[in-house]
Write a structure and sequence with these properties.
The chain is 54% helix and 11% strand. It starts with 6 loop residues before the first helix and ends in a 9-residue tail after the last helix. The strands form three sheets. The protein has a four-stranded mixed β-sheet with strand order 2-1-4-5, with no helix packed on it. A four-stranded antiparallel β-sheet has the order 6-7-3-8, with helices on both faces. It has a two-stranded antiparallel ribbon with strand order 9-10.
Length: 409
């Protein structure tokens, strides 16, 4: 606790929370409000932690949509609680990094989803092309507090720290004006939850290592690589029983499966039979859906602002999927996106005279400009005409600042 409550550690934790920004919790204090009194508040928090008097406040419950249509439950702690959780994580993480598995990649320093994908690709390339794809049912909501605290007590052996962690686990969830007590789970949203999740699942990692399996785990997403369908089904059965009996968690049978790597999705990717990484079908669909939202014709945003939003999204997407072979699909998507943007820009002109004027300003002859402006075609059909492509060429889009999808890779 002396390390957790060290003023230097608390200051580092505060800087991390401040950098992450985020909204306030149930006490109404924002990051900006804390910043105005940070030195005084941090010293008060230090005294309360050392005296064992620090009490977490109810977290603010928020539900966000998941790609499959369901909702993910988040718990947003107060700014003060986020700082204390971060301070705990900064002290505990180095301790557990020494014992965590080499096959665990999620929420760990100097490890990323790309590292997990490279390892999975190498396994498939090496002949382990059948994947046992495990999906834990509502993992973050179902973590057993007793088992987690027993593991922590074995490792830490300091009552003040253990009581504080248990208080964070048990603190109520305030949602829709109702505060619900919690006896299980470690809700996503706090800095400590990812570490606690890895501590819980480290027992699964150790069991898989003991059995000699090749696997990659990123948070609660775990893939085990074997050589045959029969071996995969045998592993699925035995590991499912282990998870139920030892971890007191449940494998989602509908989402879990044993199949060739090309039929399984891991971190938004599929792995071909020779280990090549590809963007999964659902990831492609989500990308296009997001671009449709950004280029929706009735948004009322300036064209420059739309280009900026599209670029921000594409940079993040291209960076995350940079290991995947997707040149052909990205070329098609780039053509489709330019058509959507041409449509958006033409609709901004609204009237025929404005359309003709815009086309002429971009180098189109007058007769061609009026031929399109007076055509009576719908906006989307106008966007694919030779006149629109000539006036809003690839070079024109580059001048507007739109980043290319293929060359940038």
């Amino acid at each position: 606790m002396e390390k957790v409550a060290d003023l230097g550690n608390l200051v580092r934790a505060w800087k991390r929370v401040k950098a992450n920004k985020g909204s306030g919790g149930t006490d109404g204090m924002t990051v900006k409000a804390f910043d105005e009194r940070s030195w005084t508040l941090l010293r008060e928090m230090r005294s309360e932690l050392l005296d064992g008097k620090y009490k977490p406040v109810e977290v603010r419950g928020v539900q966000i949509p998941k790609p499959n249509g369901s909702k993910r439950q988040l718990g947003i702690p107060t700014v003060k609680d986020r700082i204390v959780q971060q301070a705990l994580a900064q002290v505990l993480m180095p301790m557990y990094e020494k014992v965590f598995s080499e096959s665990s990649y999620g929420f760990r320093p100097n490890r990323s989803a790309h590292d997990a994908l490279r390892r999975g690709s190498a396994y498939v390339e090496g002949g382990y092309g059948i994947v046992v794809d495990l999906d834990l049912e509502k993992f973050f909501d179902k973590v057993n507090h007793d088992r987690l605290m027993a593991r922590l007590a074995r490792d830490l052996r300091e009552s003040r720290v253990l009581r504080l962690i248990l208080a964070f686990l048990r603190v109520g969830l305030m949602q829709d004006g109702v505060c619900r007590s919690r006896t299980e789970g470690t809700p996503q949203g706090g800095p400590l939850s990812p570490l606690l999740a890895n501590i819980v699942l480290d027992e699964l990692d150790k069991e898989l290592e003991r059995r000699g399996h090749r696997f990659c785990r990123y948070a609660d997403d775990c893939n085990i690589y074997v050589k045959s369908q029969k071996a995969g089904e045998r592993v699925m059965g035995s590991i499912t029983r282990f998870i139920a009996r030892r971890l007191r968690l449940k494998v989602n049978e509908e989402k879990s499966k044993v199949a060739p790597s090309r039929e399984c999705t891991f971190l938004g990717h599929t792995i071909g039979g020779k280990g090549q990484l590809r963007v999964s079908k659902k990831s492609k669909e989500r990308m296009r859906d997001r671009l449709r939202q950004l280029t929706k014709r009735n948004r009322g945003r300036k064209f420059e602002a739309v280009i900026g939003e599209v670029n921000t999204y594409l940079r993040g997407w291209l960076e995350y999927y940079r290991l995947a072979n997707a040149k052909g699909w990205l070329t098609e998507t780039e053509q489709w996106l330019r058509r959507k943007l041409r449509c958006y820009r033409l609709k901004q002109c609204r009237r025929r005279f404005a359309i003709a004027k815009f086309l002429m300003e971009n180098g189109l002859p007058e007769w061609k400009s009026w031929l399109l402006a007076g055509s009576g075609k719908g906006w989307y059909r106008m966007a694919v005409t030779p006149q629109a492509s000539e006036a809003m060429s690839n070079k024109w889009f580059a001048e507007q600042g739109l980043i290319p999808l293929v060359i940038s890779r």
